[in-house]
Amino acid sequence: MINILIIDDEEKLRGLLARLIILEGFEVYQAADFKTAWKKLEQNDIDIVICDVKLPDGNGVEYSKKIKEQYPTLEIILLTAYGNIVDGVQAIKNGAFDYITKGDDNNKIIPLLYRAAEKVALLKRVSQLEKQLGSKHSFDKMIGKSNSFQKAVELARKVSVSHTTVLLTGETGTGKEVFAQAIHQESTRNKHNFVAINCSAFSKDLLESALFGHKAGAFTGAIKNQKGLFEEANNGTLFLDEIGEMAMDLQAKLLRVLENGEFITVGETKATKVNVRIIAATNKNLQKEIEEGHFREDLFYRISVFQIHLPPLRERMVDIEELSYNFLNMFSIQMNKKVKNISKEFIEALKQHSWNGNIRELRNVIERSVILCDDELSMEFLPLEFQVRKNDQSKTLSAFHLASAEKLHIQKVLNYTNGNKTKTAELLNIALTTLYRKISEFGLE
After folding, report:
1. Paired sense of beta strands 58-59 and 48-52, if any
2. Which residues contact 336 (CB under 8 A, 6 or more apart)?
3. Which residues of the chain are modeled with pLDDT < 50?
4. For the whole model, what pTM was predicted?
5. What fold is seen in the domain 3-133?
6. Listed residue (41, 43, 25, 21) closest to 33, CA to CA
7. CB 54: neighbour CB atoms within 10 A?
């Protein structure tokens, strides 16, 4: 239900308006002055305020600004006995939804209330989505109990409240962009843009244009002015992923932004000032890159004021099960499936994997398995390499015996030749009759 507060010192007019609005199904609160109205606002979830311009303790046009500052999703309709253009313009500037004269309110007020209610509902929805987005990228949503991961989270929390440049290191797929988004969300810059770019995905010239923008005619194909990502991220955060791939001369331009807070747009001569926090990430050893002449040492010291290393998934095996269930729930919802369980054998197979692709690879494995499954994730839905590895592990103890080793070797060659026994015998350098005897002896048929 929409809650409406009427502020008017004329009791009869206020009561008449209240009855009219109640008949439309709205909840109505009343106040004769702004002091009383402010208490009503604090005590109740008010959606729309209908306020007289002239009140015993002030002016409604001025009060509308104070109300909107405190309650941004609330809408205000101002009523006046003698309307004038100056007050009307100022009311709208102060955030009022509309400004009408009292003589017209009987005809206009109800349709106006419905339009204001629609806007309130929209603003609340936007606010809710913003909160969900912020929650999605918060540290509290991060999954992992391993000591190495929790240490990284703790460091990220501490640095998030500052404006310090951060360098995230770790293998591909360890979640560096997720950390960058969380740092931005927990910072005072979270009302402004978080902009991300992968430096390895662009050539030098295209990356320069993407970062700093360009003027029309600056190069072939530049038909109009283009704002760069530094301007898009002004007062917010710019995430430079794979910064180790950036060309040396472009690194010098980035260094200037970090030192002076200014850059020159491609094709321009005048510098542009920005206030941007840089979070960089790399899967390379930048100190080794410096030694080999591929990365500027002065830039390294500017971006690595605060370093956080994200551990690979193989060092977080304790987190495998929780991460797997998180991806299972996510993909089950996306695919409208009712897959809720994962077998113990499936989890054990995941824990034995090397995970060179880290969390990104785990996500892909779970997504593939959910596509194939309708009930419970079990071994049969894992990629072949997981199942072969599982079978090999069950034979580890017996493989120390010569006969077991011979059996495994013959089986692998048979698999390689797709069961062609003549070809298998040639590769093993044994007689075909010997191969048939071994196949029978080891039960490989």
Report:
1. unpaired
2. none
3. 134, 394-400
4. 0.61
5. Rossmann fold (3.40.50)
6. 41
7. 14
